[in-house]
Amino acid sequence: MTLSSPLVVASTLVISVVVLVVAGFRIQRQRDSHADGSEESSESTLRSASPQLSIFDSEDVDDARAIDPRIFLPDFPDATDDVTEQVLAFACSIKHRYGDEPVHLLRIQSTEARAGAGDSDADSSTPGQFSGLEAAENTAINSDTTESEDVPATVAQTVDETETDLVVMGHEPSHASEGATFGRTADHVLAETSLPTYLVHLDGALSEKERLHVVVPQHIDHHEGFYEAIYNVKQLASTLEASVTVWVFEQNVQHYRTLFDLVEIDVVAEFASVRSWDELYAELELETVPAEFVITLAVRSEKIGWDPELESVSTRLTDVPARSSALFFLREDEPEHDDRFLRTD
């Protein structure tokens, strides 16, 4: 065994202490540097997460994001002037905030009625014709007249020829029992096009509606066109300054609240969950009043989100106090189209 001298031991201890001090200093510098980087990263994260102005609140609006739908509204031979004005008010109310595309109102006459009228109802553009209609004050309206022996075919053909973005039609729930699910023309348009098609039944003036009830069937959020429909609900609520209640058929209300908030336009909504359509009707019987409007999101038969109850929902809703209702059939086959309705902040 070899013993170390006291001098050697002392030298070894001094060297060890120096090494530890230097190592400790380097470790501390690394920690400080990491902390500074974390603070910068945290600050950067906070900045990126801070609320940005919505594109619709900015004075400089990107034209590529400015949504200006070409709305087509067929006016049927048996429609009264009151019904026409009510549905037109609805179409004007969901026109988005930017753009100059007019609502296209097509008055359809039967061949016999057209022959009796002669040339007095020639096609025309009538921007001032509905000047007394509050919802039309800031909306351009092109009004044409045509004759037809086959109204459903005329409507579908016009939709195709005019590059329509959205179809709005008056809807009488009783028509569902006349050999067609939603009415002959509505059925034909839904079968021949993939466009969003809104079937509207208004009892009383739209401007008097103080609350919107939005019914969201199960799984319909997986269908393309869902965000577009929510955007139009928000636009309508914003125009009417109406409150919103969203009814879902699943317990995960927060899921739908999140989806609702992803869509442009700041609108506060309440959310409620029911277990069945019968429970929904019972709740609407208790919760609604005449100055309210029930909107049901819908899809074409056998598509994602389809529910057989959609065939009779309009008729069932005539028994609740809020007698005004609409079916919002979602756009099909254009999943990328929905992106423009999502927030960019």
Automatic annotation (TrEMBL):
Annotated spans, Disordered: 31-53
UniProt name for this protein: Universal stress protein family protein
Polar residues: compositionally biased ranges: 43-53
Origin superkingdom: Archaea
Record-annotated UspA domain positions: 82-201
Keywords on record: Membrane, Transmembrane, Transmembrane helix
Transmembrane annotation, as ranges: 6-25
Organism: Natronorubrum daqingense
